[in-house]
Design brief:
- By secondary structure, this protein is mainly α.
- It is 79% helix and 0% strand.
- Helix 2 packs across helix 3.
- The longest helix is centred in the middle third of the chain and has 33 residues.
């Protein structure tokens, strides 16, 4: 299989698999632990929005550091700093100084990690095998996602938050090790056209951020409440969802690389819309909630290769992958923070959780329009930027 011949991408995917073990463990319990710690649901969503807003503000610093050190040290630093947030999470007891410090550290770590990781993966991957490589990455993340929530749910219940979240931090330290064997990617001092080249993907990320904030983050609160605030049951539901999504992403990635992008868009966005409706209507029933949660794993497996194949190839063809990532991640932050704040406002006004979850349909509709315009182009996926640039009328 040619897409496994890039050893650097293999190391990056190994890193991502270990990183995903932490995200599917402690990361999956981030919002619900805040809820259990005494932060009301609108406050949890507002805190998550504050983290995204902080990321937006801090992100220009990444370019300054990357021009001096390159991407590799920043991916490692971001991995380590994201680990520091979990011991802080264990200390939160309602709205107060501990929550504020957590938001600051989370913003810094997430900004360094995700901005540099996306730029790094885009620069070192292969455009002709992009769907395969992302699919393999997401399949690995789904497999470890079976174990992470089970272990963390058990640890929170039996050992307490300190041990559970300290273990998550330790896993993230281990995730940095494969990056040590990968090459550095230097960043140019100037790249004048980078921002203009990023606009189509900025819009795509903004739509994705809005949708995920509602059918992902709001949903976690709804599922936790539906399961009686049980960390063990919540972890079991997350593990069941990971089983459902373990193979799907790899298969869809291969499908995209063979030129079936338009069909992939219908499958990805159609499954996302169906998942949103299932979650908005069935969150109050534990059985329906578990089924709706499992459907979300398929959405991630379908949507991620479809969206990220476009974005990574756009990034690789841009004047600077890091500047491109800074711009697109800013779009995700704006979309995600906006969706969270609107959802928090609805809940504060007394609206049901289903209404806040249904807001995701606005993001999925926007994603559908943007992706359809790209995959309708006659170019192959390896020339993704040419098709997607037509959104802004830059060609033809």
């Amino acid at each position: 299989m040619a897409f496994f011949r890039n050893n650097t991408v293999n190391l990056l995917n190994l890193h991502y698999g270990v990183h995903s073990l932490a995200l599917s463990g402690g990361g999956a319990f981030f919002a619900v632990f805040l809820l259990q710690a005494g932060v009301p649901a609108p406050g949890v969503l507002s805190a998550l929005a504050a983290i995204l807003a902080g990321r937006f503000c801090v992100r220009p610093l990444v370019l300054v550091l990357a021009k001096r050190w390159g991407l590799k040290p920043l991916v490692i630093a971001g991995t380590v700093i994201t680990g520091l947030q979990y011991p802080l999470l264990a200390q939160v007891r309602g709205v107060g100084p501990d929550l504020f410090v957590l938001c600051v550290v989370s913003s810094l770590g997430d900004t360094l990690y995700w901005t540099c990781y996306h730029a790094y993966f885009a620069a070192l991957g292969d455009s002709e095998h992009r769907g395969h490589q992302i699919g393999a990455r997401e399949a690995m993340a789904a497999i470890v996602g079976i174990v992470g929530p089970l272990i963390t749910g058990w640890a929170l219940t039996t050992l307490g938050p300190k041990i559970a979240f300290d273990a998550t931090a330790a896993v993230l330290l281990l995730a940095a090790l494969p990056i040590l064997a990968t090459p550095n990617v230097p960043i140019a001092r100037t790249a004048p056209a980078a921002l203009s080249q990023a606009w189509p993907s900025i819009l795509m990320f903004a739509a994705d951020g809005w949708a995920w904030s509602c059918y992902g983050l709001v949903w976690q609160i709804a599922l936790f409440l539906a399961l009686g605030r049980s960390f063990t049951a919540f972890g079991g539901a997350m593990a069941l969802a990971a089983v459902a999504g373990a193979i799907s992403g790899l298969l869809l990635g291969r499908w995209i690389d063979r030129g079936h992008g338009q069909k992939a868009v219908w499958l990805a966005i159609g499954s996302a819309a169906l998942c949103v409706l299932m979650r908005a209507l069935g969150y109050g029933n534990p059985v329906l909630a578990v089924i709706a949660n499992a459907s979300g794993a398929l959405v991630v497996a379908f949507v991620t290769p479809t969206v990220m194949s476009v974005v990574y190839n756009q990034s690789q063809r841009s004047a600077c992958t890091l500047r491109f990532a800074i711009a697109t991640e800013a779009g995700w932050d704006v979309g995600g923070a906006s969706g969270l704040l609107v959802a928090a406002g609805l809940l504060q006004a007394g609206a049901p959780l289903g209404a806040a979850i249904a807001l995701a349909l606005l993001g999925t509709a926007a994603s559908f329009a943007l992706l359809r315009r790209h995959y309708r182009a006659p170019t192959p996926l390896s020339a993704a930027g040419e098709g997607l640039a037509r959104i802004l009328g830059r060609e033809g």
